[in-house]
Amino acid sequence: MRWDAQRLDLDDGSLPGMPSIRGLLRSVQVPEFPGLTFHEVRTRSALNAVPGDSAMPFPYTINPYRGCSHSCVYCVSGETQVLMADGTQRRISDLRVGDRIIGTEKRETYRHYVTTEVLAHWSTVKPAFQVTLQDGTEIVASGDHRFLTGRGWKHVTGSMSGAHQRPYLTTNDKLLGFGRTVASVDACADYRRGYLTGMVRGDGTLKTYRYERAGGGSATVHQFRLVLVDGEGLDRTAAYLLREGIDTTRYEFSRATPTRKSLSAIRAQTRAAVDRIKELVEWPDAVTAAWHRGFLAGIFDAEGSRSRGVLRISNRDDEILDRLQAALTNFGFDCILEDPGLANHVKTVRVRGGLREQLRFTHLVDPAIRRKCSVEGVAVKSDADLRVRSVEDLHYDMPMFDITTGTGDFVANGVISHNCFARRTHEWLEFDSGRDFDTQVVVKTNLVDVLRRELARPSWKREHVALGTNTDPYQRAEGRYHLMPGVIRALAESGTPFSILTKGTLLRRDVSLLAEAARQVPLGLGISMAIWDDELHSALEPGVPSPRARLDLVRALTDAGLPCGVFLAPVLPGLTDDQASLDAAIGAIAAAGATGITVIPLHLRPGAREWFMAWLATARPELVPRYERMYARRAYVSAEYRSWLSARVAPLLARHGLDRQSGGAARRVDGSGVTGVPGDEEVGFPEGSLPTGGLPGVRPPWTAPPAAPEEKPASEQLTLL
Exposed (0-12), middle (13-18) or buried (19+): which is 702, by Cβ within 10 Å? Predict the structure, then answer.
């Protein structure tokens, strides 16, 4: 979760659409920190105000570093659908380097859709804006993102004058593209049956007949055969038949000639197979939307085409044509039946509406033969109403994604979107533009001086300041720049209570300084740790100090008489929520002397969801269905799982002495319950992780520890579940 992040000195204009960092002093890579690049800057502010309506128990934050930055300013939400080269759509969060997608290029008068490649892919967190078009298209993007309009590229937000002067979207603008379409869905039984009906009735041979043998007598032949140019249609048909227990044989029907493509076929020749196929392709009494979608996909694969800007399906069977028109009309397509009066009685159903409706058709029904779905070479023209209806500030930050492409653009939710200038920015900073810069750290070198000026203002009320809510203040960069000692001294000397949340063991360096600060102001220290299995930790938290190293940090803090709460987070369903794992973790935390503990089940918000599920599919694929059910429509686990986990954790907390009442946890002003870690209002901050004075509903100001630490007061697990 991010709030109003510190603003760096920015100066528009160094790169097209990409502000240069005027405060940048230098960018360095040093041998002792392999893989990291530090961008040293001068910042104008140190203290960040948390929005007044936030549930967080602190009004200000400080972030000495802005880590894992790609210098990216263009981003869209992870759910944004990107048009792929084969005509399908894929969420931008699911794209990977090397994927073939659709971009555009200008050819004489018009832009045309062309195939391009994803050259880079990353994510960041940025303030969100929703762009809504008159046709209903909605896109969530950062204010810096640019879309192509009839009057050129325009940012989502901007101003007519001042530092943020730049072209931006207004209700007078119309975006370019084909606009709103639909999302494809997984094939179900009705869809598969509809597909087989369209394909087999459209282009298959299905019959039983008798013939007389040359030497006398007769024989019965059962025959199913499907002959196609495109193997994709044969593959899908064979797969769907196999699900019904019908095995088919693949063979070459005819070889290619100078004037004809080769043909392949599948067949089945048993009575049981032919009878079952006949049953499957019977017209249903009750037609569902899924059957209609499958039928349209099958008949299009069998008899359809897209050429010269027209989508058409031809057949001579009047019942098929009637069913075809009914299905199209059911989904709101404008279609007409054309009868050219051919001797073979073939007629054609044509779908009107241009590329807009053609792509809606292909996304809705999901044909198997993808060459018929490509937009390669098509001019960027559309009758879709892509006028801007509104641009709305959503007033929150969210994970966003962006890519670099070969054409410099891509198609996002049906409109043409500019890609990020990350590579050009890296070149400007004299970096290798071919590298993947996912370890860029912005260092606010003058942070301590700026902080001291802000703390010295007469208006400063010495309210709680939190560190570590955005980026870890004790990440590896702190080992080089030593910003935290100055921050701690500045806060303590000004009488400002503060808290630190980290998983970085570098905090041990400042234990004596923190003990000194604790005699001047209330403070809180929180350590997060999650995984106790070394192999699992290496897979999910590479480069992060091990849990055992963080336990040693807890022990060092509490031995110095300092408070230290531990976030046992996240607990991973099916991976770390078993009795043995929880008992080992809670026991080890208690033995290290933690003043409190909070147990938090896994949250899968957009961005984190994609990364975690991709890892899970590779490492523990058997758990994927469970996670898909648990997190189907939400980022948090269900109330049932919370109750189950609470019941499992409670006796373990009691066993290890961490179940007693805590006086140091922040409570809601209305007393209804505990507040949460960023973004989760149902979990609590463990005892010792927050300053204990000056907060609503919290015990009186905390007393500094004596020189010789005495027995620490008992503490309690705050329920998070």
Answer: buried
DSSP 7: P
Structure tokens at 126: 């940025």
Report residue 161: phi and psi, to 5°.
-155, 170
Q: Is the pTM of this model over 0.90?
A: no
Tokens 């399908």 -> residue: 88
Burial class (CB in 10 A: 0-12, 13-18, 19+), 96: exposed
Convert the pLDDT of each residue in 628-640 to its tens digit: 888 887 777 887 8
- CB 384, CB 178: distance < 8 Å: yes
Tell me whether residue 160 is exposed, middle or buried, using C-beta atoms within 10 angstroms of its C-beta: 0 to 12, 13 to 18, 19 or more. exposed
Could you tell me the domains of the chain?
1-73+421-496 (no CATH), 189-373 (3.10.28.10), 527-602+637-721 (no CATH)
pLDDT single digits (tens) 381-432: 888 999 999 999 999 888 888 887 888 899 999 999 987 643 333 333 333 3
Which positions ≥6 away from 595 have C-beta within 8 Å?
A: 558, 563, 564, 565, 664, 686, 687, 688, 712, 713, 715
Amino acid at 189: A
CB crowding 313-337: b at 16 or more within 10 Å, else e: bbbeeeebbebbbebbeeeebebee
293: nearest Cα among 359, 194, 371, 188: 194
Secondary element (H or E) of residue 445: none
